[in-house]
Specification:
Strands 1-2 form a two-stranded antiparallel ribbon. The chain is mainly alpha-helical. It starts with a helix and ends with a helix. The chain is built from 13 helices and 2 strands; from the N terminus they run ααββααααααααααα. The protein is globular and about 55 Å long. It has a domain of 106 residues. Helix 6 runs antiparallel to helix 8 and helix 11 runs antiparallel to helix 12. Strand 1 and strand 2 form a beta hairpin.
C-alpha cells in the first residue's frame, strides 16, 4: 500500500471520528428520548434510555445551548420518567416537581412556546394531583392550571390534538366545586371541552379515553363503554407506545368496573 493511499485512509478515518464526536448533547438526548420505550414489559419500562436522555438534555441546558428546544424535551422527559418509569410516589413527585420548577421559569422566558407551556402544565397538574386534589384547590394550584391552560388555548387550540381542550375538560370534571373556595368546575364545560378535543383529533386514544371517563363519571355508562371499546381496539402509536398502552390499560380497567 502506497504512503499516499495510507494517508488518505487515515485522514478519512479521522474525519469520521470528528463527525461522530460532533454530535451535540441535545442530539444524543433526542436519540435516547426517541427510543425511550425500547425495553419494556407491558407497562414496565426500563429506565436506561430515559435516564440517558435526561442526562444529555441537562448537560446541554447547563452549557446554555439550544436552550429552548432542550427545555421542551427535558420537560417531556421528566414527565415520562415520573408517569411511566419510576414506581414510588416519592420519586414520581420528585420528577414532576423538577418539571414544574423548570417549566415555571421557562414559560416566562419563552412565552410563545406551546410545547414548553403544555409540558409545564402536564408536570404541574400531576404534581398537584400527587399532593391531593383538595390540597391543590386550597393552595390555588387548580386555578393556576386553568389559567395557564387557557393561555395555551389562546396560543393554539389545536396544538397536540387539542391538548388544551382536553386538559380543561378533565379539570372541570375532576376538580370539585367547593362553595366560597372554587366555583368554576362544571360538568357542562367539561363535556364541551372534551368534545372540542375530539373534534380536533377524533382518532386520539387519549381524547377518546378521557371523554369516556367523563361519561362514566356522569353515569352515562353505555356511551362510555362504546368509547372504551374503541380505545381497546385501537393500535398504539410506535412513537408514543407506552403512553397509548397506558390509556388502553386504563380503558380496560374502567370497562371492567362499569360491567361489574
Amino acid at each position: 500500500m502506497s504512503l499516499v493511499f495510507r494517508l488518505i485512509i487515515v485522514s478519512f478515518l479521522g474525519l469520521g471520528t470528528t463527525i461522530c464526536s460532533a454530535q451535540s448533547y441535545f442530539e444524543k438526548g433526542l436519540d435516547y428520548y426517541n427510543n425511550r420505550a425500547e425495553k419494556h414489559e407491558e407497562l414496565k419500562v426500563d429506565s436506561t434510555n430515559i435516564n440517558q436522555a435526561i442526562f444529555y438534555f441537562e448537560k446541554e441546558l447547563h452549557e446554555d445551548k439550544n436552550a429552548e428546544s432542550v427545555t421542551e424535551f427535558l420537560l417531556k422527559s421528566y414527565y415520562y420518567k415520573a408517569a411511566f418509569v419510576v414506581r414510588s410516589k416519592d420519586e414520581q413527585k420528585l420528577f414532576y416537581k423538577k418539571g414544574t420548577e423548570l417549566g415555571e421559569k421557562s414559560i416566562t422566558t419563552y412565552p410563545k412556546n406551546k410545547g414548553i407551556l403544555l409540558w409545564y402544565i402536564a408536570n404541574f397538574s400531576k404534581y398537584g394531583e400527587a399532593n391531593g386534589i383538595i390540597s391543590s384547590v386550597k393552595e390555588g394550584l387548580a386555578d393556576k392550571i386553568k389559567r395557564h391552560t387557557e393561555q395555551l388555548l389562546e396560543l393554539d387550540a389545536s396544538f397536540e390534538s387539542g391538548a388544551a381542550h382536553k386538559i380543561l375538560g378533565v379539570i372541570n370534571y375532576k376538580v370539585p366545586n367547593i362553595p366560597f373556595m372554587i366555583t368554576w368546575p362544571s360538568k357542562e364545560k367539561a363535556e364541551e371541552h372534551l368534545k372540542k378535543a375530539l373534534a380536533v383529533n377524533p382518532k386520539s386514544i387519549s381524547n377518546i379515553y378521557y371523554y369516556a371517563e367523563f361519561l362514566s363519571e356522569v353515569k352515562r355508562k353505555e356511551e362510555a363503554k362504546i368509547l372504551l371499546q374503541k380505545v381497546m381496539n385501537t393500535s398504539p402509536r410506535k412513537e408514543a407506545l407506552i403512553e397509548d398502552l397506558y390509556d388502553i390499560s386504563m380503558a380496560k380497567k374502567l370497562i371492567d368496573k362499569l360491567e361489574n
